[in-house]
Amino acid sequence: MLATLGHVADGLKYLATARRQHASDLLTAKQLAFPHSVALPHGLEVTWLGTAGFRFAYQGVVVWIDPYVTRMGLGDVVRRRVVAPSHAAVDRWIDRADAVLVGHTHFDHAMDVPVIAARTGCGVYGGGSLEHLMGLHGLADRATVVVPYHDYEIGPFKFHFVPSVHSKLQLGFRVNYGGELTCEHLDEMIPQRYRCGQVWGIALEVAGMRFYHQGSADLLDDEIRDRDMDVFLCGIAGRRFTPHYVQRVVKALAPKLIVPSHFDDFFQPLGGDPKLSFNINLTAFADEVHAASHELPIGVLEVGRPIGVSSSV
């Protein structure tokens, strides 16, 4: 009985701490809203779609990185249910696509990509697991298995892929759902079958501005050849399992601005009030950035709200 009461007390204490952290992170996000002093080139529009997903639009061309809009529930993962992309969510959130770039093939990065490609006719770029996933949907011909550091071009966009690694979310020892995606049938695709596959950092250049996207909080320091990036799109989920992640990646890229991503609760539907993950700690991330570089500004984007074009940045 006493042990049970102790567990209840511990649980209540954890919930109280989590609520305080959530309130702190919401305040931090508001305080670090994308700075008006940073101007994007005329005509360039950038939108954060939550998780590690971004939309870039310039001169009528739209490129996406890791778009995930289906937002399955946590129960689907716990119960290991077969899941499928939501066509309704794709119709609502994906207006058009000329290319989709994928950093790895966990469900919160790649699940919606085949539906987007089928709907828009675009090509997709990533590793062998992405090609396999596209093949399950009968779309393998739309997939380009990238060559590291090779420059690809879509209209005014130029991009290349940098070998990387995923953060070891299982207490720092193992990557969740690691290895290659090998499932042979869509009716077997539970969330756990969306294996990580090859992991990439993505360098993208458009309108004279250089972006670097890191979808998971780890890196191969010696593989990064891009420096003095204008904007670093920094996935921060799992960084506590990567020693000195922020310090290392800031040193490697020397960015002018850091934009955090993958700190929202991706089991919640898109839209409405912001819903942040309870275990990411955006406030501590800001402290880590300032410890790594006092001069480096942080800009937090609002999900679904574009910056550039009509905004006053």
Write out key terms for the chains shown.
313 residues; alpha/beta; Metallo-beta-lactamase, Chain A; 7-stranded mixed beta sheet; 6-stranded mixed beta sheet; 13 strands
Your description of this structure?
With 313 residues, the protein is α/β, with parallel strands linked by helices. 27% of the residues lie in helices and 19% in strands. It contains 8 helices and 13 strands. It has a 7-stranded mixed β-sheet with strand order 6-5-4-3-2-1-13, covered by helices on one side. Helix 6 links the parallel strand 5 (123-126) and strand 6 (143-145). It is globular and about 50 Å long.
Distance between the termini: 59 Å
Helices, by number, come to 8
Order of helices and strands: HEEEHHEHHEHEEEEEEHEHE
Radius of gyration: 19 Å
Gross morphology is globular
* Fraction of residues in helix: 25-40%
Number of domains: 1
Which structural class should the secondary elements be placed in?
A: alpha/beta
What oligomeric arrangement do these chains adopt?
Answer: single chain
The CATH topology is given as Metallo-beta-lactamase, Chain A
State the CATH architecture.
Answer: 4-Layer Sandwich
What low-confidence regions span 5 or more consecutive residues with pLDDT below 50? 5-11
Strand content: 15-25%
The overall average pLDDT, rounded, is 89
CATH superfamily: Ribonuclease Z/Hydroxyacylglutathione hydrolase-like
Largest sheet: 7 strands, mixed
